[in-house]
Write a structure and sequence with these properties.
The structure holds 2 protein chains of 2 kinds. By secondary structure, chain A is an alpha/beta fold. Helices cover about 40% and strands about 20% of the residues of chain A. In chain A, the strands form 4 sheets. A 7-stranded parallel β-sheet of chain A has the order 3-2-1-6-8-9-10, sandwiched between helices. Chain A has a 6-stranded parallel β-sheet with strand order 13-12-11-14-15-16, with helices on both faces. In chain A, strand 15, helix 11 and strand 16 form a beta-alpha-beta unit. In chain A, helix 7 crosses helix 12. Chain A is elongated, with a radius of gyration of 23 Å. Chain A starts with a strand and ends in a 6-residue tail after the last helix. By secondary structure, chain B is mostly helical. Chain B has one domain. Chain B has 7 helices and no strands. In chain B, helix 1 packs antiparallel against helix 2 and helix 2 runs antiparallel to helix 3. The chains are: A alpha/beta, B mainly alpha. Chain A: One of its GO terms (molecular function) is hexosyltransferase activity.
Chain lengths: ~400, ~180
């Protein structure tokens, strides 16, 4: 199958959508499909052979933060050319409601179009205002995919219609086969707790974990907290009493390999995120690596953890609940072993072999018998009135 | 002179309205095409499911009672008239759920020679029906929303195209086939 994938966010900036697009493209290529990814990127960034650059993204304030987006005539023309030259059997657009490449692609193409909705933003005023503009473009999408039941609900409420739920994929084997790192492994009297995420992004929840740490160390004195992610380390521990700072180790940005090894090594993985998550891929990665998971009870997390069956949940933003949950798990090796076993079984549905098959099923459903994707030639008024000469 | 200017403005306004209506008609036309494609895809998945069910029923792998139930339901689904289709397909879904309520049945199918392929095909078929149906009904919803709009009703932009109807049926797959952690 010839598949065109559109990624709206810069290829050179790490992010959930970009990783998802990369893994999906590589999985499909391994299965023997022809895949071309259109993504914004700086000209200097080396790109994998299947990625086509749509030019540099421009930083624009959008939706409360600075987003790097692509728009304008030049980008639109590039999208059109890519669609024309690719002659794809199916076009897969990610985040079609973002005012960037995805929306342009939606606008410029016709034929079998599949779209994946990643976010579950609460309804924004801009979205309501933009609705009449978006609607004609979104109408062209033949099949919508939401990454979680939660994302699907948001989509149904905001845009109407329906979507099938296909979770984000994870290479389970990569995490399951990682070699544990001895210095990150805990001992019964000195267990380790892992955290991965931006340090300076409060939504990732490190402040909640820092607030819970004194209570955890009081009951389990040898506990070490391993923090991987970029951000200001001094600021992160500023609220901690001096004697507790030695319990926190910062690993900085880690490679994918080290991330897998970290998750393989720790006795407990804590995800204290306070909001803004539509899926929770890190939980799946932790479970794949066999780490028992303790997460805040966000809708998305609850769903990934099978309603609390595959990992434990605590009341969101409550440091006391986090500390209580962590201590209960740290003092109960049997429960942790149970969670490991349950998690290992549970993650199979998120493995690329399962997820990829579902995505392909969607492609086949919309592409069967349909003409391939082509640039959308708008029919002029003359043609509609029968005045155009061929 | 003012009358000429007024006339020009009126002509310009009419032209703009014309372009807008023409564009809306194009949008509607594309939505109808999308419904047709989605309907064809839905038909194909339903037929695929009925065929594989019938194949299983006549293969002699299942016990005679289950075979007859499945055969009857699959046969009815394939033969159903258009207005009976939703009921017949729902009954096939229920028959499949009843026959494969016990995961031992699907194990029996897998154990038969060539059964692994058949089981996989059946799993794919029961999973694709809800997918195709959702895509179809999504297209129907979008078209209906546009057709209910004043501009479309007053100017009869939809022409003679019939008002699109959603396809409603029970498409819950048997739990033994829907388990994704296998």
């Amino acid at each position: 199958m010839r598949i065109g994938v559109v990624c709206p966010y810069s290829w050179d900036v790490p992010g959930g959508v970009q990783f998802h697009v990369r893994d999906l493209a590589e999985h499909l290529i391994r299965l023997g499909h022809e895949v071309s990814v259109l993504a914004p990127s700086d000209d200097e960034t080396p790109l994998p052979p299947y990625v086509v650059s749509a030019g540099r993204a421009v930083p624009v304030p959008y939706n409360g933060s600075v987003a790097r987006l692509n728009f304008g005539f030049l980008s639109a023309a590039r999208v059109r050319r890519w669609v024309h030259e690719g002659d794809f059997e199916v076009l897969h657009i990610h985040e079609p409601a973002t005012p960037s490449l995805s929306l342009l692609a939606c606008w410029a193409a016709q034929g079998p179009i599949v779209a994946t909705f990643h976010t579950s933003n609460p309804r924004s005023r801009a979205m309501i205002a933009a609705y009449p503009i978006l609607q004609p473009a979104l109408e062209k999408i033949s099949a919508r995919i939401a990454v979680s039941e939660y994302a699907r609900r948001t989509l149904v409420e905001h845009l109407g219609g329906d979507a099938v739920t296909i979770p984000n994929g994870v290479d389970v084997g990569f995490f399951a086969d990682a070699e544990p790192q001895p210095e990150w492994q805990g001992r019964p009297e000195a267990p380790t707790i892992g955290f991965i995420g931006r340090i300076d992004e409060p939504r990732k929840g490190l402040p909640v974990l820092m607030k819970a740490l004194p209570a955890i160390v009081r009951e389990a004195p040898g506990t070490r907290l391993l923090v991987a992610g970029r951000g200001d380390e001094e600021e992160a521990v500023a609220a901690l009493p001096d004697e507790l700072r030695s319990h926190v180790e910062f690993l900085g940005m880690v490679s994918d390999e080290d991330k897998a090894r970290l998750l393989r090594s720790v006795d407990l993985y804590v995800a204290p995120n306070t909001g803004g998550e539509s899926f929770g891929i890190i939980l799946v990665e932790a479970m794949s690596a066999g780490a028992p998971v303790l997460a805040s009870d966000l809708d998305a997390f609850e769903q990934v953890l099978d309603g609390g069956e595959a990992g434990e949940l605590f009341a969101n933003e409550s440091a006391e609940a986090l500390a209580a949950g962590a201590l209960r798990l740290l003092h109960d090796p049997e429960r942790r072993a149970g969670l490991r076993a349950r998690g290992t079984r549970h993650v199979r549905r998120f493995d690329w072999s399962t997820v990829g098959a579902d995505v392909l099923a969607v492609y086949e459903t919309v592409a069967d018998g349909a003409a391939s994707v082509a640039p959308d030639e708008r029919i002029g008024l003359r043609a509609r009135l029968g005045l155009a000469r061929d | 002179m003012p009358t000429v200017t007024t006339l020009i403005w009126i002509a310009l306004a009419l032209l703009l309205i014309g372009v807008y209506l023409s564009w809306t008609a194009g949008r509607l036309d594309r939505l109808h095409a999308r419904i047709d494609a989605a309907r064809a895809a839905l038909d194909a998945t339903l037929l695929r499911r009925a065929s594989i069910a019938q194949e299983l029923a006549t293969a002699g792998v299942l016990d005679p009672a289950a075979s007859i139930v499945l055969y009857q339901a699959a046969h009815d689904a394939r033969q159903a008239e258009e207005d009976q289709r939703e009921v017949a397909e729902s009954e096939l879904t229920q028959a499949l759920r009843a026959v494969f309520a016990d995961s031992a049945q699907i194990e029996a199918v897998r154990a038969a020679p060539g059964g692994e392929d058949t089981a996989q095909e059946l799993t794919a078929a029961v999973r694709r029906v809800p997918m195709a149906r959702r895509f179809h009904n999504d297209a129907v919803r979008a078209a209906r929303a546009l057709r209910r709009h004043r501009k479309v009703r007053w100017f009869r932009l939809a022409g003679h195209a019939p008002f699109p109807l959603a396809f409603e049926m029970d498409d819950e797959p048997p739990p033994a086939l829907a388990d994704r952690s296998q």
